[in-house]
Give the backbone structure.
Amino acid sequence: MSTGFVYILCNDRQNVLYTGSTADLKTRINHHKKRYVPGFTKKYNVHRLIYFEELPSLSEALAREKQIKGYTRIKKVDLIVAKNHSWRDLYDDIAKAIRER
């Protein structure tokens, strides 16, 4: 069984948040960055990875995604700030970490 990831993206102005899940974080975020993913993230230019968690399975990542989507914006911001207080784009970090595996 492979791991899963839950992630939060924002736009450049940090006023739009998007929560998703995937089995392949690097590829999925790359698709958001290149605007290949139709819908909400493309429409609102949501492409900056500001939070992610690795979970033991994709089903657990999907459950965590649903949990986070139920949070208020304030609770989501608290979650982000706890791990990424500057809201820095973490894409380069995950790309590097995955290459080193």
About this structure: Residues 13 and 46 are 10 Å apart (CA to CA). The chain is about 45% helix and 20% strand. The chain has one domain: 4-99.
